[in-house]
């Protein structure tokens, strides 16, 4: 969800815009010419995003390109007028005359450039990327549109069966714990796990847990009349693997429905975990205990709201906000890119709290990454040349190596491109 409040406020208040207002970190963006004929996507619409806020927050977007903007109620009338007069037949200058007569604004070219950058104009070549695309490498993409269409008729039945099964498994597990047949403190304990069992657990974990986690998102999305179209596998920050389903139009459903869609994977993991606990403890099968523990880990990781996870998007919808992770990214990049103003990043108390907690989580992650690298380096020196370093250097080396790797990734993915200076011709 791209936040254009800064640019929108300037435009409605009839203030001049610069290229930096169109795209804060991309100096290569060119303002659209006056003879350009902008055209919105045919399915563009405005929908309520967050209710019971002051002012109410709306979403302007298109399912076809799966791009959206967040606006508040004060800008609703202006945006409706803009959509009505932007038909692909009038030039920007012609539309600008109408806008000037109604709203007394003159910076319409910059605003249309911003709309194009955020993927709302059909005849504009999109350049702006989300931070997911900037910081990740796409590894695999599968078109699931036909599959979703083929199962749409049986989705209500699947959900009804799952509700009954979930309540049954939960009741059985609760009864076994109350009857002291299963000890909640030892139900994940595994005894004498062999190598073959570990391989089987890995296969069981990869196939049913990860794939069905995303499958559950897809099922609940179909229930709410959405059409998931892609299953993607990406490598985020060159380290963290991401598997996710692309669900166009998710911002057009009600907030509670969005939360259910985002929570579907966690609900499935909890169901599979409870089922594995019952089977593993009643029949003393270690594999199912390990599968249960693996699902518990998946739930815990997905609830962490400091990176791209279900927990992050659920938190945003619960707090009726968006882009708080982007604020954190800008805060981190401000140490590299001095043109970013940190004062404008801290928009609310919750934003400040989130940035502080995310920073602490990042530092912990950097130390973990650095300590693993330092341990490998120590073992390598000792095994190769019998060199044993002083252990007092372990912590500073872990911190420094983790910091170096992190900022190396930041520099490689988001360093602003410098414009090449034209070569001066030498006079003869």
End-to-end distance, in Å?
Answer: 56 Å
Average pLDDT confidence is: 79
What general outline do the C-alpha atoms trace?
Answer: globular
What helical percentage do the residues reach?
40-55%
Radius of gyration: 26 Å
Beta fraction of the residues? 5-15%
Order of strands side by side in the largest beta sheet? 1-4-3-2
Give the class from helix and strand content and strand pairing.
Answer: alpha+beta
Number of strands: 7
Give the domain tally: 3
What is the strand and helix layout of this fold?
Layout: E1 2-3, H1 5-12, H2 19-22, E2 45-50, E3 57-62, E4 67-72, H3 76-85, H4 92-103, H5 108-117, H6 131-135, E5 136-143, H7 145-151, H8 155-178, H9 195-223, E6 230-236, E7 240-246, H10 255-282, H11 286-303, H12 310-318, H13 324-333, H14 349-385, H15 394-414
Parallel strand pairs: 1-4
Antiparallel strand pairs: 2-3, 3-4, 5-6, 6-7
Helix pairs in contact: 8-9, 8-10, 9-10, 9-11, 10-11, 10-12, 13-14, 14-15
Describe the structure.
- This protein has 15 helices and 7 strands.
- It is an alpha+beta fold and 428 residues long.
- The strands form 2 sheets. It has a 4-stranded mixed β-sheet. Strands 5-6-7 form a 3-stranded antiparallel β-sheet.
- Helix 8 (155-178) packs across helix 9 and helix 8 (155-178) packs across helix 10.
- The protein starts with a strand and ends in a 14-residue tail after the last helix.
Quick tags:
alpha+beta, 15 helices, Outer Surface Protein A, domain 3, 7 strands, 54% helix, three-stranded antiparallel sheet, 428 residues, disordered N terminus, disordered C terminus, four-stranded mixed sheet
């Amino acid at each position: 969800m791209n936040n254009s409040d800064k640019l929108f406020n300037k435009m409605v208040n009839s203030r001049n815009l610069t290229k930096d207002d169109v795209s804060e970190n991309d100096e290569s963006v060119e303002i659209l010419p006056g003879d350009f004929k902008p055209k919105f996507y045919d399915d563009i619409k405005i929908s309520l995003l967050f209710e019971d806020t002051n002012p109410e927050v709306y979403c302007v977007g298109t399912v076809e390109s799966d791009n959206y903007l967040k606006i508040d109620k004060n800008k609703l009338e202006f945006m409706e007028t803009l959509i009505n007069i932007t038909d692909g037949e009038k030039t920007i200058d012609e539309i600008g005359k109408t806008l000037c007569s109604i709203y007394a604004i003159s910076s319409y070219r910059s605003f249309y450039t911003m709309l194009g950058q955020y993927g709302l104009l059909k005849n504009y070549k999109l350049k702006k990327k989300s931070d997911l695309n900037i910081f990740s490498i796409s590894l695999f993409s599968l078109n699931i549109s036909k599959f979703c269409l083929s199962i749409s008729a049986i989705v209500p039945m699947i959900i009804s069966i799952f509700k009954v099964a979930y309540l049954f498994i939960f009741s059985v597990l609760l009864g076994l714990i109350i009857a002291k047949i299963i000890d909640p403190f030892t139900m994940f304990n595994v005894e004498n796990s062999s190598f073959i069992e570990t391989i089987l657990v890995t296969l069981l974990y990869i196939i049913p847990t990860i794939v069905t986690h995303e499958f559950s998102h897809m099922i609940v999305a179909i229930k709410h009349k959405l059409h998931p179209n892609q299953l993607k596998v990406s490598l985020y920050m060159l380290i963290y693997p991401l598997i996710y389903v692309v669900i166009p139009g998710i911002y057009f459903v009600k907030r509670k429905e969005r939360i259910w869609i985002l929570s579907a994977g966690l609900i499935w993991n909890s169901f599979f975990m409870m089922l594995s606990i019952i089977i593993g403890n009643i029949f003393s099968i270690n594999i199912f205990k390990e599968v249960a523990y693996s699902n518990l880990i998946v739930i815990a990781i997905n609830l962490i709201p400091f990176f791209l996870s279900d927990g992050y998007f659920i938190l945003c919808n619960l707090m009726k906000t968006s882009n708080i992770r982007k604020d954190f990214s800008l805060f981190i990049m401000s140490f590299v890119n001095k043109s970013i103003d940190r004062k404008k990043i801290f928009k609310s108390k919750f934003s400040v709290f989130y940035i502080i907690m995310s920073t602490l989580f990042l530092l912990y992650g950097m130390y973990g990454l650095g300590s693993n690298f330092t341990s490998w380096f120590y073992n390598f020196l000792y095994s190769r040349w019998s060199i044993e370093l002083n252990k007092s250097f372990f912590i500073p080396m872990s911190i420094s190596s983790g910091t170096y790797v992190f900022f190396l990734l930041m520099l490689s993915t988001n360093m602003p491109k410098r414009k090449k200076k034209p070569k001066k011709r030498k006079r003869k």
